[in-house]
Amino acid sequence: MKISLAKPVSIKDIARMAGVTHSTVSRALRNSPLVNRETVERIQRIALESGYRTSAAARSLVTRRSDTIGVVVTNIADPFVAGVVGGIEEAADEHGLSVFLANSNAEPEREVRVARKFEERRVDGIIVTASRVGAQYVPLLEHMQVPIVLLNNQHPSQFAHSVMIANVQASLDATRHLIALGHRRIAYLGDRYGYQSDTERLSGYRQALEEGGLPFDQQLVAHGDGKPEGAETAIAELLALLQPPTAVFCYNDMSALGAMRQIRNHGLRIPTDISIVGFDDLYISQYLNPPLTTIRQPMRQMGRMAMETLLKIFAGAESGNDIKVPGELIVRQSTAPPKES
Amino acid sequence: MKISLAKPVSIKDIARMAGVTHSTVSRALRNSPLVNRETVERIQRIALESGYRTSAAARSLVTRRSDTIGVVVTNIADPFVAGVVGGIEEAADEHGLSVFLANSNAEPEREVRVARKFEERRVDGIIVTASRVGAQYVPLLEHMQVPIVLLNNQHPSQFAHSVMIANVQASLDATRHLIALGHRRIAYLGDRYGYQSDTERLSGYRQALEEGGLPFDQQLVAHGDGKPEGAETAIAELLALLQPPTAVFCYNDMSALGAMRQIRNHGLRIPTDISIVGFDDLYISQYLNPPLTTIRQPMRQMGRMAMETLLKIFAGAESGNDIKVPGELIVRQSTAPPKES
DNA sequence: CTGAAAGCGCTTACAG
DNA sequence: CTGAAAGCGCTTACAG
Question: Whole-model pTM?
Answer without folding.
Answer: 0.94
